[in-house]
Amino acid sequence: MRNHSFLKSQGMTLVELIVVLLIVSVLGVSLALRTTSKSNIAALSQADLLRNGFVHAQYLALNKNTPLSVAATATGFSVCLSTVSPCNSGTAITDPGTGSKFSETFTDGVTMTTTGATGTANGALVTIDSVGRPSNGTSLISTNPVAVYTLNGAGRIASVTVRPITGFAEVMY
Q1: Cβ contact 92:76 at 8 Å
Q2: Phi, psi of 71, deg, nearest 5
Q3: Where are the domains of the chain?
């Protein structure tokens, strides 16, 4: 007599096949996400960093009741007292949140161009008055936009736009 249990044990059921395919597809997706170059999203993350830095500078200007300047170069930005010239990483204020200089350098080959901000020898400068609004030192800036920072990295472009009167900073991808 033949042993039929041996024949039944060969192969997989449909449920087992679906489970195996599901596990393989989850592993494939996670591997694909891990191998995606982080430079593909570098411009986007650095634009978020710039926007957050600008908003943080507004809060500091309000908190300290003193005007601050955000100076941008092709490779980063710094926040200084508005009376300090030049504003760069060496003259940046100390960020109370981190205890270090309020200066950031872009990573992963991201570069930046600026339009609308006041041009200086060290880059583009936006002054924030003591209530967090963009100003030219004596009056509010009413031109729209106050400044547009365009970040480029690995073929991806993101921009940070600073609006007049309120100083609202928005990121566009």
Answers
A1: no
A2: -105, 130
A3: 4-37, 39-172
42: which 2 tokens? 């570098």
**Burial bucket for residue 146 (CB in 10 Å: 0-12, 13-18, 19+):** buried
DSSP 57: H
Per-residue pLDDT tens digits for 67-106: 999 999 999 999 999 888 888 889 999 999 899 999 999 9
Are the CB atoms for 80 and 71 separated by under 8 Å? yes
Distance CA 42, CA 45 (A): 5
Q: Helix, strand or coil for residue 133?
A: coil
Q: Name the E strands within 89-163.
A: 103-105, 111-115, 118-120, 123-128, 134-135, 147-153, 156-162
pTM beyond 0.90: the answer is no
CATH of domain 39-172: 3.55.40.10
The tens digit of pLDDT for each residue in 21-71 reads 999 999 888 877 665 556 668 889 999 999 999 999 999 999 999 999 999
Integer Cα distance of 26 and 153 in angstroms = 29
Contact present, 137 and 128 (Cβ < 8 Å): no
